[in-house]
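Practice problem 4.
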């Protein structure tokens, strides 16, 4: 078992300080819980930021990984990969699309989707269509291009100049979006629920209006489902709740249940525009990643699974609404969709303070923008565990506002 090093050790100092890490290390996980070396047990409602979709140590994922580990790890995309082909077909059919590109992360997948959109229009003799229209407050990743797609200054500071070809309109404002569309627009790229932006779900009718505008203006629609995909909203993909059909769907995080894998699902015409040599990924869709992702998809596709996610989502949202009613001076409201839930707090209670109180009671959540506490529990979380979360959250709110 690996021992936790001291924060003053050379090994700890060797890790680049790109994260404000909490002095807490876990050595084991089981279901909805994480365990420290000292035996402390934490209810995990962060799940690696919406990654551990089936919780920790899920037997189906462990079996798939162990079986594939004994056979073959990596060959590269120079050769056919049967596990990748199987997963591509399943994802394409589920999304109502035809072709899939595999990579390793959400940022990579979003980058690939942008390239695909521009390449598609280039092949359509419309090289002027290069602009990607994004929403204010969005988060699409931390590469330079995705920082340009993400308009929040905190992520951009010190990394300028930003790449061109990106524009922003307020999230949820259909009039502003339509006004920004033009012959320069290659694609609209949106999160159905803005996770990092504050667990903000698209207003009713907005996604339907965006899809209609995209068709009218001849532009593509990219659904960034990195955080919402693979069942987190109670639908396999969040766009399905709105009854729309994007041209490209971007996945990562929950797709591998903890194993790094990302994907872009696209219309056939878009995929065909990307010929050999146009894009690539050394590790993308390798046998290990796709074996695990296939196992996860088999679990999510089981008949009662998404129904149970919706039931637990309703339980969580109802409980958060009751807490908002009980503590109106501390809670401004409840946000989100499915098991991507947020509690917007009043100025008197900073989200960092509430998050610290929860962690002291051995519950893990994730802060988000606009003073929102984000809850991203495993999709397999039980009714009793939701009640445990709500009870401890109520205890923390009962402590009142932060003292000056």
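Answer key:
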């Amino acid at each position: 078992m690996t021992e936790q090093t001291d924060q003053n050790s050379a090994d700890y100092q060797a890790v680049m300080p790109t994260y404000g890490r909490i002095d807490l290390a876990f050595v084991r996980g089981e279901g909805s819980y994480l365990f420290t070396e000292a035996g402390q047990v934490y209810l995990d409602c962060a799940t690696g930021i919406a990654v551990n979709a089936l919780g920790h140590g899920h037997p189906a994922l462990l079996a798939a990984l162990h079986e594939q580990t004994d056979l073959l790890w990596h060959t590269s995309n120079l050769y056919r990969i049967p596990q990748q082909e199987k997963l591509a077909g399943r994802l394409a059919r589920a999304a109502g699309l035809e072709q899939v590109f595999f990579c390793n992360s959400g940022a990579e997948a979003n980058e690939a989707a942008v390239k695909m959109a521009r390449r598609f229009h280039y092949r359509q003799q419309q090289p002027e269509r290069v602009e990607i229209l994004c929403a204010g407050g969005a988060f699409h990743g931390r590469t330079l291009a995705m920082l340009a797609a993400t308009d929040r200054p905190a992520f951009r500071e010190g990394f300028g100049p930003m790449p061109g070809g990106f524009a922003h309109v307020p999230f949820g404002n259909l009039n502003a979006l339509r006004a920004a569309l033009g012959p320069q627009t290659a694609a609209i790229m949106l999160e159905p629920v803005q996770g990092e932006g504050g667990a903000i779900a698209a207003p009713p009718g907005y996604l339907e209006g965006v899809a209609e505008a995209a068709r009218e203006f001849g532009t593509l629609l990219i659904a960034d489902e990195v955080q919402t995909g693979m069942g987190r909203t109670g639908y396999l993909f969040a766009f399905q709740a709105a009854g729309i059909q994007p041209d490209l769907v971007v996945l990562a995080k929950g797709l591998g249940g903890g194993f790094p894998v990302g994907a872009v699902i696209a219309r056939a015409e878009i995929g065909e525009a990307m010929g050999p040599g146009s894009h690539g990924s050394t590790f993308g869709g390798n046998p290990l990643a796709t074996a695990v992702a296939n196992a996860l998809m088999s679990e999510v596709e089981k008949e009662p699974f998404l129904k149970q996610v919706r039931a637990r989502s309703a339980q969580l949202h109802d409980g958060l609404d009751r807490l908002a009613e009980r503590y109106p001076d501390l809670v401004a409201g409840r946000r989100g969709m499915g098991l991507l839930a947020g509690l917007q707090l009043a100025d008197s209670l900073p989200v960092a303070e509430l998050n610290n109180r929860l962690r002291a009671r051995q519950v893990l959540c994730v802060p988000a923008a606009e003073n929102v506490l984000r809850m991203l529990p495993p999709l397999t979380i039980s009714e009793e565990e939701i009640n445990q979360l709500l009870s401890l959250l109520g205890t923390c709110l009962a402590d009142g506002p932060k003292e000056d």
